[in-house]
Design goal:
Keywords: Fertilization, Membrane, Transmembrane, Transmembrane helix
Protein name: Lipoma HMGIC fusion partner-like 2 protein
Organism: Cirrhinus molitorella
Strand order of the largest sheet: 7-6-5-2-10
Structural class: alpha+beta
Membrane topology: Multi-pass membrane protein
Order of helices and strands: EHEEEEEEHEEHHEHHE
Main location: membrane
């Protein structure tokens, strides 16, 4: 018989696990890892027939994508991948970053999916599903840390110097500034380790004496604060 067990700690762990997975995924797909130095697009043709200079803007560069402003486009900003193939990513360090982040995100998404069903299933192959998921989250966190540590080592690539100036070098930003995507990925990594630790509390909450008493009473829906 399936017992639906809902506790505050287990629900909080599930919610945080989903938030961690989505924050890392959104950060990985974003082009706002680096914000380039201000620049002015080439002169553009105005509706009145005169030639005018475009407004200054700051392009952004992601691990495999970028956003730039093109004068001939009506919408102005063009965002998309600069690397069509894996080998075209700016540097070997960023390729390694992509692998580590992708591995970590894959594990986090798997845990987030499984966490939704922990209300009905608390064990898998006689192992606590919370402990298994907590271990996977810890491994994912290590992958994410490796990716974030390697990422600044690729700042010396030719691609980054186009956006950040010739002074850009490994672990030196040059004229660029960090975008929100890096901080989101960093926050998601911290949250991943919090979830890994908090999974033990979710396990304790769903296997407490109160839960066992309500199961023995024949209840199929158990909600505890």
């Amino acid at each position: 018989m399936c017992h639906v067990i809902v506790t505050c700690r287990s629900m909080l762990w599930t919610l945080l696990s989903i938030v961690a997975a989505f924050s890392e995924l959104i950060a990985f797909l974003s082009t706002d890892w680096l914000v380039g130095f201000p620049r002015t697009p080439d002169a553009v043709f105005s509706p009145h027939g005169a030639t005018a200079a475009g407004e200054a803007y700051r392009p952004t560069l992601g691990i495999y994508g970028r956003c730039i402003r093109l004068p001939h486009l009506r919408r102005g900003v063009l965002c998309g991948p600069y690397a069509v193939h894996f080998g075209e990513i700016a540097s070997g360090f960023w390729q390694a970053t992509s692998i580590f982040l992708a591995a970590g995100i894959l594990l986090l998404c798997a845990v987030a999916f499984i966490s939704v069903f922990t209300m009905c299933f608390q064990s898998i192959m006689k192992k606590s599903i919370f402990n298994v998921c907590g271990l996977l989250q810890a491994i994912a966190g290590l992958f994410l840390i490796m990716g974030l540590m390697l990422y600044p080592a690729g700042w010396g690539s030719d691609k980054v110097q186009l956006y950040c100036g010739p002074d850009a070098a490994p672990y030196q930003l040059g004229l660029c500034s960090m975008g929100w995507a890096f901080y989101t990925a960093l926050g998601g990594t911290v949250l991943t380790f919090i979830c890994a630790v908090f999974s033990a509390q979710a396990e304790i909450a769903t296997s407490s004496d109160k839960v066992q008493e309500e199961i023995e009473e024949g209840k199929s829906l158990i909600c505890l604060l």
